[in-house]
Amino acid sequence: MPPQTLACQRHLFDLETDDVFLNGAYMSPQLKVVYAAGMHGLSRKNRPSWFKAEDFFEPVAEVQELFAKLIHCSEPERIALIPSVSYGMATVAANLHLRSGQNIVLPVDQFPSNYYSWSRLCAERGAEFRLVHCPEDSSDRSAAWTTALLDAIDEKTAMLACAHIHWADGTLYDLKSLRAHTRNMGAWLVIDGTQSVGALPFSVEAFEPDALICAGYKWLMGPYSTGYAYYGPVFDSGNPIEENWINRQDSHNFKNLVNYQEHSRPGAARYSVGEQSNFVFIPMQIAALQQLLAWTPEAIQDYCSQLWATVIPELAQLDIHLHEKRAEHLVGFSLPDRLDADRLRKLLEERRIKVSFRGESMRVSPNVYNREDELGHLVEALGAALS
What we know:
single chain; alpha/beta; 7-stranded mixed sheet
């Protein structure tokens, strides 16, 4: 079934009229409905007597169900609420039984939250930290980098940690091939979905990761200091990185909280952050996830694809070419050597065009709030910098 056709959704956001915001990979603008949900949650705290025991649990369960639906996961209890990617990765590190002589495989230039945990863990356990480079002379960056990762995984690999797309340039990894190979080698597959989930279709059923970790303030449209983690069956008997009351069995029974429980609640509940019932953030997360499910990631990709279609020929005339296999919501491309980078930055600032520069790439990350003419404004600035 083809995705639904979306019109521009800018009216649902509070963006400034003259801003050309092509930087959703940095941080999403806030939906008006998410802002309203946060303000309502904030006002409720003025009346603490209104809160009941179920208010600590039922909204959290709703968030789990919504996020599970977004990633095509049939078990909402496998979703943990986390404050950051680093928190979710620390949980993985605490449960990965890495031994001396084993290795962890990682593509180079990952976001630091998907690097530091593995670097330290390898150093502590006497394991090898394998950083994999993409062949520079490849015309098919997606296939080349996936092949390089497959070649780096062997019988001593304990885990491959990667993303669905590279956070700096948008390279798509072939997760199905990587999953098949890691399973054959007895290795975990841990995915950072921060720059994909919400805007790019993702299926736990199709990719079968051992863990999926996502920050909530980018493509998931939520507030800062929120995130989500899916933890698969290998984590069912694991250890959390903190102990808190709400993750224990029968924690809903407030009068018996001092009857300390040995067992955690089912599924991934043991891995959720303490004070997960945040009465401001949880309503905001619910509103954001409901909107994403109404749009669908498939429709978001289709909308962004149409935005790019209007300028690809003009970019080619400037000797700027996009990867053929790419996500449409996050695109990185190299700039011509003859381009004056300082002049370009000045032009972008003057014209209020917001993009990011990551490594050797200019990263352009549109979404459903962008208009067709806005990518045209970016092309005009690139042309002016080249003239």
